[in-house]
Amino acid sequence: MEMAGTKSRLTWAVNLAVGFLVLLWIIPTFGLLISSFRDRDAISTSGWWTALSASEQNVIVRADVPDNAVQEGQVWVVSGNVFDSGAGDVTAFGITSRAPEAFAPGEVAVHANGHEITVGANGDYRIAYAEQPSGSRGQRLFVRAESPPSFTLDNYREVLFAEGMGKALLNTLTVTIPATIIPILVAAFAAYALAWMEMPGRALLIAGIVGLLVVPLQVAFIPLLKLHNNIGIGKGYIGIWLAHTGFGLPLAVFLLRNYMAGLPGEIIESARVDGASDFAIFRKIILPLSFPALASFAIFQFLWVWNDLLVAKVFLGTGEDQVVMTGRIVDLLGSRGGDWEILAASAFVSIAVPIAVFFSLQRYLVRGLLAGSVKGG
Amino acid sequence: MKHVMYASAAALALTAGMAHAEGELKFAPGEGAFSWDSFEALKSMDLSGEKVSILGPWLGPDKELIESVVHYFEDATGADVEYSGSDSFEQQIVIDSEAGSPPNIAIFPQPGLAADLASKGLLAPLPAETADWVRDNYAAGQSWVDLGTYAGADGTEALYGFFYKVDVKSLVWYVPENFEDAGYEVPQTMEELKALTEQIAADGEVPWCIGLGSGGATGWPATDWVEDMMLRINTPEDYDAWTRNELPFDDPKVVAAIEEFGAFARNDAYVSGGAGAVATTDFRDSPQGLFASPPQCYMHRQASFIPTFFPEGTEVGVDADFFYFPAYAEKDLGKPVLGAGTVWGITSDSKGAQAFMEFLKSPIAHEIWMAQKGFLTPHKGVNTEVYTDPTVAKMNDILLNADTFRFDGSDLMPGAIGTGVFWTGMVDYAGGKDAGEVAASIQSTWDSIK
Fold it and tell me: What is the CATH number of the domain that holds B192?
């Protein structure tokens, strides 16, 4: 009994800790999601956590221009409503920046120039001039108002319907699919050879490949592009497929070799005894058994290539037919990269395809990752 | 009957073709105050089938602007020009030219980078007569020639860079109506500016919004402050010597300039959010305080591009305006102006690239952008009547009234300083480190790369 009690308390502690960590991880994503529905001014003036509830805010509204004043008896009047939507709740107003909350709604404020200004609780304002006013610059009204949470779909509209975005999506697929399949093909063969074919120096070769995992890919950009230019590939899709293949191979070979080395040797030996060639063993036994490892590497490689901007900038040309989605999104951010709202929205747009891939392949992911770490029988 | 049909088909094709051409060109040739004769002159070059690729740092709306200029070149010569922008231009141009697949023309935001590439032999020198042309046709022509002249791979100096599009940095942005409400006047001298700063603080308000945050480039807005201050307390010769390190970074003259910046930025009462917020506020967000209700600050010193980051709907000239960051009346250094500009260089020589550089000299290449927005030029041959935006014309006046024009010093220093320790040093300084110490550590880095 006591043992069980301890266990359940421990389980509770683990569950709570996991729950806490998940929450911690989700908060930034959640904030990004909310930001993606806000406009730029809102993002730069207040935090996303304030966006969910109604808040009192001081805003500056420019009244209609004096040129549009209409005569009402003795006075000339400019009128309108301070709220874009026509509805809202004013709690205070002012007519100078020094005293933005000087008057209660309905009170009459007298401007230094003599005209009388009043703002009602519903946002209706009325500016009365003694003589016909002129000017193309409306009076500033400082209003403290209860504003409901406001969200917009404009950011998504801008990202999704930006010029060339559809083409960029196709370009990204053109890069991603071959750049995922080619390394898997090559790595599967290599992994089989390294796991099950006796040859001199095999251990050294494996060590060399593991060593390549720590080489940062940035150091290879200039020499690789130089090579592409010299052998006539230049900048283009073939170049980027080769580059992604090269950059992905060390991890792929390492992951697949460990998995394949863990497969039961008896099956392979009996197949050999039955006269199967290495190719037949690879195709008929190893490949079907390694599916979880192949799938988990495919997810890794797909996500990495999909999200890549750097390699695409280096190895692809800059024409319309070669700009990938990440590149197009960077374009939207503007020369100085201040457009947060676009970044937030595009994060959720570009995440959609990888998420679909992940969920369709995820059941292989855990199996594939664990495989190789525990010797199976 | 048949003839008539052919004729109308031809007419239709003709008008369709014309409509297409006009759709691309922002301003119809022959109309307005533009120098159309320089556009017509371009037509003597036939570049059909010639491709010109251009790589630059401009994206988004800026990209549309440069493309609107490029269309005129394409229309007149028949060449096919492809502009592409990159947010990591500085890295990309180095990779591309070292690997042997550079664009034809590169647009450098900093002359330092262009000089680097020239010294590796990756830039093609401009034709010999270009230097004379710049000397004759640009205001303060010799200084533009000097800024574009670098040593090549073999050490001989030649003109590699051509300046097109200039920015003025010595500007202070403010909201005129907030000044009116509070009864403040636009200061004409640095003494008045300091007095105004004190007065605003004494009124219980906050005079300045300063933000240095800029991702990996955090600190650069402070380098502009220091450069502006250098020009206001020291001679232009000192400034030039400083950018070449002939005047060491830890010289008392430089330390004094850093402290002049600190007089504004390190005083809790002078900066929105207190001195501690300076280094952490993003420069793109910092002007927002001007437009808050009640205002969080009254002034913001920043270059001519900053209205991009004003709240949506802000009209420059009405809702916000700027004045010249003034000079000390007592120091007799005239009216110095700090600026920057983009340098165009040929990274892969071709007939089309040469022709395009030739096009940049024509007034029309400047006027098309001037007539839209945010374009300043030292070209004396352009018709300034095409400015539609009075604020830009006012900026050009500041440029033309300058007694001294100096290029952004951090762009002239070696990369490790100008885009490295100068930035981080300024962040340290804003965070409370001693000016002398910061200057000494920047100097020691400079010594180590010599």
Answer: 3.40.190.10
